[in-house]
Design a protein that fits this description.
mainly alpha, 288 residues, 0% strand, 77% helix
Length: 288
């Protein structure tokens, strides 16, 4: 069950990243974050009301609030790092956030078997390689590396925090809703500040019409992201966090394959090797 939900998480996150990446080519990244999360929050508000999840209000929701604050900061740091580049270094480094929940699991006393330890190691190498690391070429700015490491830590912290935010299914709905509302507050504040500094909230060409036309895609990105957080929380609660976190972090492989299938982008040799290693690691984790 842990492996199934964790792999579903990687699929959903991979597709959300692919969709978000395409949308940020047409409109500002902050606008994508705020609008997509608003769509997700609207759907979650209905689910929370219908299921009576408001009865699950408790101190554990502070974990959801923390995840909602850390998430946008990590995403913005990652986008800024990508802008500084080179992407061939930034993208693989960003996937190192898996070390956070894995470390939390080990500190909490989890002791995977030998095969699972091997699977963790192999899969983590595969995850980094799937991002297409740039081993030579343009120099890397220190600021880009620092921003990427901040983003990686943030991504990993969100995984750990959201897993602690609930213990029931209805509680999970409420936690995800609180996380999204916090995302909107943080992202909306950042968007307001950037606009006051002269940045644009809407695309230069097409304006609000472009955003309206992209609403279905924006809703998909937001809902895929929130569903991924939900499936990861379930995976982490029903099995070893060390296994759930690594399998859930296979999303760079999904993103690379989606780019290959929908955009015709060719996988570099190192990415193909990474996808293969990630698959081997998945098999070891699932059977260990």
């Amino acid at each position: 069950m842990t492996a199934l939900f964790a792999l579903a998480t990687s699929l959903l996150w991979g597709l959300a990243d692919f969709g978000g990446g395409l949308l940020t080519r047409r409109m500002p990244a902050l606008t994508v974050v705020v609008v997509s999360q608003t769509c997700a929050a609207a759907v979650l508000a209905v689910i929370v009301t219908v299921t009576g999840a408001w009865s699950e209000v408790g101190g554990q929701l502070w974990f959801a609030v923390a995840a909602g604050v850390v998430g946008p900061v990590a995403m913005l740091s990652f986008y800024k790092a990508l802008a500084l580049g080179p992407m061939g270094v930034v993208s693989p480094l960003g996937s190192l956030g898996v070390a956070v929940p894995v470390s939390v699991g080990l500190i909490a006393g989890e002791r995977p078997g030998l095969l699972q330890f091997a699977g963790v190691a192999v899969a983590m190498v595969g995850i980094v390689l799937a991002g297409g690391p740039q081993l030579r070429g343009a120099p890397v700015q220190r600021r880009a590396v620092l921003l990427t490491l901040v983003a990686a830590f943030g991504f990993g912290a969100v995984m750990s925090l959201i897993a602690q935010a609930s213990t029931t299914v209805t509680g999970l709905f409420l936690a995800l809703f609180v996380q999204r509302v916090t995302n909107i507050a943080v992202g909306g504040t950042a968007l307001y500040v950037s606009v006051r500094r002269g940045a644009r909230a809407l695309p230069r060409e097409g304006g609000a019409a472009v955003v309206r036309a992209a609403l279905p895609a924006l809703a998909f990105v937001g809902l895929a992201d929130v569903a991924a957080n939900g499936t990861y929380s379930i995976a982490a609660q029903h099995g070893p966090v060390t296994v759930a976190a690594v399998l859930a972090s296979l999303y760079p492989v999904v993103t690379a394959l989606a780019a290959r299938g929908f955009l015709g982008e060719r996988l570099r040799g190192v990415q193909a090797a990474g996808a293969g290693l990630a698959l081997v690691g998945t098999v070891l984790l699932a059977t260990g």
